[in-house]
Amino acid sequence: MTGLPAVSSVSLAAAVVGVAVLGAMLFVLGFNVSRLRGVTAKVGGSQMPTDPASPLLIAQRAHGNASEYVAYLAVLFLVVGFGSPAWVAVPLVAGATLARLLHAYGMLSARSLAQHRPASMAGAVGTYLFGVALAVAAVFTLW
């Protein structure tokens, strides 16, 4: 290790914006689950749906899937934002953020969890690719 690198204000700003956007998305998805629980309760529906076409189940899975990735992406955003130049950090943070937004949109716009939407598939693949790239970039912040 050569000491602490100079922090790029652009890299750090990208990281903070990415964390904020993903955090807001997670809370909005959670609110949507609560909203649909209320709607479902009013009509006597199950709070534990198993039908893949249930709007509540779709919302639960969109929120659950986001929560599986958002926290770790936030850590990677901050590590890369603090230790990488803007030309590395900005595209990786922006790409991963857009991938997660695309995935959530794809899930919520599907009529059923059994229906694979191109948006959710592209978002999932983008999450994997940008996530691995962020992890590699995080390691390179040590040098």
Describe the protein in words:
With 143 residues, this protein is mainly alpha-helical. It has one domain (9-140): Up-down Bundle (Four Helix Bundle (Hemerythrin (Met), subunit A)), CATH 1.20.120.550. The chain has helices spanning 9-42, 55-83, 86-108, 118-140. The longest helix has 34 residues, at 9-42. The chain is elongated, with a radius of gyration of 18 Å.
What is the residue-averaged pLDDT?
Answer: 95
| Major sheet details | none
Report the structural category. Answer: mainly alpha
Total domain count: 1
Low-confidence segments, given as residue ranges, are none
The percent range for helix content is over 70%
Measured on Cα atoms, how large is the radius of gyration? Answer: 18 Å
**Count of beta strands:** 0
Rough outline: elongated
SS element count, helices: 4
End-to-end Cα distance: 5 Å
In CATH, the homologous superfamily goes by the name: Membrane associated eicosanoid/glutathione metabolism-like domain
The CATH architecture classification is: Up-down Bundle
What CATH calls the topology is Four Helix Bundle (Hemerythrin (Met), subunit A)
In N-to-C order, the SSE pattern is HHHH
Strand proportion, as a percent range, falls in: under 5%
